[in-house]
Design brief:
The complex is a heterodimer of chains A (215) and B (326). With 215 residues, chain A is mainly α. Helices cover 69% and strands 0% of the residues of chain A. Chain B contains 2 helices and 21 strands. Chain B has a 7-stranded parallel beta barrel with strand order 7-8-10-12-13-11-9. Classes of the chains: A mainly alpha (215), B alpha/beta (326).
């Protein structure tokens, strides 16, 4: 029996994709078809990401359709009638996809995006059937670091405001996570948490956009 | 980032340093012997005077570089679209009765350029650097814009301030730190800031505003649809609750304050998960709908008069005040 659960496996997917595969993770992947399949999909995506980087400014929709179908089949997310079968990501997530640098898409961001798809599709009518995945917070932190590293050395008012507000959102995320931990059945607290995650993702997206050399 | 005063960028480095050394050295130098003090003082005064004169010439020479402004006029048809992308600066838009758009742009320096282009019934305004030396807050231009009343506006202004008066067309304003001040506006008003405050005075139509740390003041409102969300900010709503209107105000912390009159009619739902709800309205059990009574936090539901408008107030740990209008 694997000592590692699905959440833990997902949280260390980045290491997995980098080839650092802990024995417990390997055991879990052997035993859990869902996680094995997810890891395989991400490996596929990573394999074609360099081509996207060179030739296509947008990630191929087929990849997302495939990934989403897989997630739906596995019951990790569920589709609501109004969402077309073409597997749309939430609008803000689309924006993030467009904004992130292509090289990053091939690496850490994939884990982040995937965690986002896992963790809080609730705002767009998709809801996980699992308990809140706080690993998402760590993934957002990781994305934040990547965003920072891609930023130009700029000390403008706007840049200062973005950083200041990111700290505010981080504070709310911590408060809401505590609240959800204390009252797991509190749907409203969970909604506040999801919204704070969304705000953080949007801020990171804006910061990343500003870091692009074309601006 | 270049932190020198603007005019110093027009001086060569050596001249600038020489000028500064001429001005500063006597101040920092040790006081000479008493016998030499008079001549030293005269020399110092001469050097200082020469320095100021030179500085004055150079400042005067450099002044037009940031004082230049551009004024352009464009004939437009009904419902023109005006877009503005400006990283930093004060933007003032006012409606007038002419079928014309007037743009007066004042770039902060000669390193900043403003492009204004008309394509059909659309006028696009964009601030951009004229050289590689410009970055951050230096990329600044201020705008005075006149538009027909029915104009549609799309404004992006990261820092500074945005003020729009008497424009009745749809409006989309996005800022980072810039405050947004609308008055006598109508149409579909969408405002998004990160840290900028928002004020709407006598606004009608539909208002959607979101921010992270901005405060909102919605005053003398005549809007039938208001959705306002800020995380760390206060929200004040003082206006009419139009029958069948929808008013949703939400924050994480801070104060949400709603003012009502005895003649208003609304269904109220107010919940603060970790904070307080203070209410001066005499509510009766809801007349129109079933509410979800949360087990968590402080909630208040009910109808005021016949409950014709719908008011939803929610906060994570802030305070909600429903108060009588003075």
């Amino acid at each position: 029996m694997s000592a590692m659960g699905c959440n833990e496996f997902i949280s260390q997917l980045e290491d997995w994709l980098d080839g650092n595969r802990h024995p417990d993770a390997q055991t879990h992947a052997r035993e859990c078809a869902r996680c094995r399949s997810v890891a395989a999909d991400l490996e596929d995506i990573r394999g074609v990401a360099p081509a996207l980087m060179v030739s296509d400014p947008e990630p191929s929709p087929e990849l997302w359709i495939r990934l989403r179908s897989q997630l739906e089949e596995e019951g990790i997310i569920r589709n609501v009638g109004s969402v077309p079968s073409g597997a749309r990501m939430p609008a803000w997530l689309d924006r993030l996809l467009v904004a992130i640098p292509r090289p990053a898409l091939a690496g850490a961001y994939l884990a982040f995006l995937f965690a986002v798809a896992f963790g809080f599709s609730a705002t767009q009518g998709l809801r996980t059937s699992q308990s809140p995945n706080f690993a998402l917070s760590a993934q957002l932190d990781s994305a934040e670091q990547t965003a920072y590293s891609s930023l130009k050395e700029e000390k403008s008012l706007a840049s200062a405001s973005l950083h200041e507000n990111l700290a505010i959102v981080d504070n709310y995320i911590a408060l809401c996570e505590n609240s959800v931990r204390e009252e797991p059945d509190n749907e409203e607290a969970r909604d506040y948490l999801y919204q704070a995650y969304e705000q953080k993702a949007e801020l990171i997206s804006q910061m990343t956009e500003r870091g692009e050399p074309s601006r | 980032m270049n932190t020198q005063p603007i005019y110093t960028r027009y001086l060569s480095n050596s001249l600038y340093k020489g000028l500064l050394s001429g001005l500063e050295r006597p101040l920092s130098r040790k006081i000479p012997r008493i016998g030499a003090r008079k001549s030293a003082a005269r020399k110092t005064a001469a050097v200082r005077a020469a320095g100021w004169i030179a500085c004055g010439f150079l400042i005067v020479g450099a002044a037009p570089a940031w004082a230049d402004h551009v004024e352009k006029h464009f004939k437009v048809d009904a419902r023109p679209v005006i877009t503005l992308h400006n990283p930093n600066g004060a933007v003032t838009v006012k409606a007038w009765t002419k079928s014309e758009v007037m743009v007066i742009a004042t770039p902060a320096t000669s390193d900043v350029e403003v492009d204004v282009e008309q394509t059909g019934n659309r006028v696009d305004i964009m601030t951009h650097p004229a050289s590689d030396n410009v970055s951050g807050d230096e990329l600044r231009a201020d705008f005075e814009i006149r538009v027909p009343q029915d104009a549609e506006l799309q404004i992006h202004d990261d820092s500074g301030a945005v003020s729009v008066n008497s424009v009745l067309g749809d409006m989309n304003v996005e800022t980072v730190g810039a405050g947004v001040d609308l008055s006598d506006a109508a149409g579909y008003l969408s405002v998004k800031t990160i840290g900028g405050s928002f004020q709407c005075l006598r606004c009608a139509g539909q208002v959607e505003v979101s921010s992270i740390s901005g405060n909102f003041r919605l005053l003398d409102m005549r809007s039938y649809h208001v959705r306002a969300q800020t995380s760390k900010g206060n929200i004040l709503f003082n206006g009419e609750f139009i029958p069948n209107g929808f008013y949703e105000l939400k924050n994480y912390s801070g104060v949400i304050e709603v003012r009502f009159s005895p003649g208003d009619s609304f269904d109220l739902s107010a919940t603060s998960l970790k904070g307080k709800v203070n209410n001066e309205a005499k509510l009766i059990p809801p007349t129109h709908q079933q509410h979800f009574y949360s087990r968590f936090g402080n909630s208040l539901f009910g109808s005021f008069n016949s409950g014709r408008a719908k008011v939803e107030l929610s906060s994570f740990d802030g305070t909600i005040n429903i108060l009588k209008r003075n």
